[in-house]
Amino acid sequence: MCRGEAGRLTSAATLSKVVKPIQWLDSGKIKRIRGVASCSRMSPATNPRVIDKSRGLLNSFLPDVYIYNEHLKGDKSGKSPGHSLTLYTESTTEVVLSVDETATQQTLPEDLAVNTTHKLLDVIHAGGCVDSSHQFLVLLFMVLTEKNVSSVRLGPLTPFYSLLFSET
User: Model pTM?
Assistant: First the structure.
């Protein structure tokens, strides 16, 4: 990004006229967990505490866990202090499930790690090939397909979709 062009983004993409139907029924087995712990305008010791706590909980289920450390300081850090943790899984059938949580400076790093890790374990336990934060995209693409029927195994529906489908 050039100086004086803050926030300007230019991209080019080809348009697709047809959305192909999907058959996404097998969620597979979880083979790895990855994540990013980030903090801004906080002590650099915050992220290792988040990473250690989260890895401690996840390593009892799976040995292949890696969480990256991203500490922002100076002009890159923005104006608000806080920290966050994003975790995602990759399965043997290339299904990706993800969760993320952001906390303020007053939240303990260990609490952030426990809450986010438990959210991820809940998403895995619920099953499905799509986590709740991405259900709307998959359902939108299913509606846009032309002829053939798409099949997707979803976990529990979000309250929005539960209400939408109960009224039809």
Answer: 0.82
